Amino acid sequence: MNIINLSVEMLDSFDLDSFNIEKWKSYMDNSIPGVKELCLKDMKETIDAGFSWENDFLPVLNSVIQDNNKRNKTIESFCNVTAHLDERIISVFKKDLDVDLILYLGLCNGAGWVTTLNNKPIVLFGIEKIMELDWYDKDSMFGLVVHELGHVYQNQYGVLHRRFKSNKDNFLWQLFTEGIAMVFEQEIVSNPEYFHQDKNGWKKWCDEHVELIKESFKSDLNSMTEDNQRYFGDWVSFHGYGDTGYYLGALFVRYLLKSNSFDEIILFDIQEVKDGFERFLKNKEKS
């Protein structure tokens, strides 16, 4: 696992306190060739969906150069969290990860983005989105980094990416893979009750409404789309709470671990996930 910190180089993307996209392109070409095209494509798709460069992108990007305190805290947390993290993963899972972790300045493409570049897995951590979301403290950074590494682990030693013709299967697979990443986090901290989303009573509410979340997700699966799903993301709301799909996914995977090892589960195909989910729904005990 390689740690690449581009926090110094990214400052070349600005004219005083204003973002300059042409300078950013040069920074990207010099730092991580190939990522520029990924970011520009994602930016175009986002703008085509109705977002504004002036209103939605520039203020977030400009904050990187304008808020020195928050930027420095983000960099410090990233360095602290990633130091000796590979040793910690090996001690728990007995395997290492072949991946580059890159702290970079993107185009608001996300706080954490698992992708492949030149046939090598990389995780891009967008400093501007981390700052915007206020995930710059050590605990939030830990959750972000280790969650993405959970996806990397499944991709390297199991099967992460599967696409299906039905939204129902796609969202059930998303529940499963996000659950894998959540349990990966929990195993790293040796606490099956750990959730990095647990703020303002989030976990307490989820614990008290397990059956509601389970039954609602099952019911919604038949009509779930990217536009109406209410389980994945802090911007969506399920009875006033975001990210409930991550909670449910972790419980689902914990249930599967009763009869299979972690490394067996990450090899599951969709039929095995479906069968396990049906059993999970019938189980009334909190896993």
What's a quick, concise take on this entry?
With 287 residues, the protein is of the alpha/beta class. It folds into two domains: 2-136, no CATH class; 167-282, no CATH class. It has 13 helices and six strands.
What would the keywords be for this entry?
13 helices, alpha/beta, globular
What are the secondary-structure elements, in order, as H or E?
EEEHHHHHEEEHHHHHHHH
The residue ranges in which pLDDT falls below 50 over 5 or more consecutive positions are none
CA radius of gyration = 19 Å
Work out the count of structural domains. 2
Major sheet attributes: 4 strands, mixed
Task: Describe this entry's structure for a reader.
There is one protein chain. By secondary structure, the chain is of the alpha/beta class. 56% of the residues lie in helices and 9% in strands. It has helices at residues 21-31, 35-48, 53-66, 68-82, 85-93, 127-132, 138-157, 167-189, 202-208, 210-220, 244-256, 262-265, 270-282, and strands at residues 2-5, 14-15, 18-19, 100-104, 113-117, 120-126. It has a four-stranded mixed β-sheet. A two-stranded antiparallel ribbon has the order 2-3. Helix 4 crosses helix 7 (138-157). 34% of the residues are buried. The model has no long low-confidence stretch (mean pLDDT 95).
Which SSEs are present, and which pair or pack?
Layout: E1 2-5, E2 14-15, E3 18-19, H1 21-31, H2 35-48, H3 53-66, H4 68-82, H5 85-93, E4 100-104, E5 113-117, E6 120-126, H6 127-132, H7 138-157, H8 167-189, H9 202-208, H10 210-220, H11 244-256, H12 262-265, H13 270-282
Parallel strand pairs: 1-4, 4-6
Antiparallel strand pairs: 2-3, 5-6
Helix pairs in contact: 4-7, 7-8, 8-11
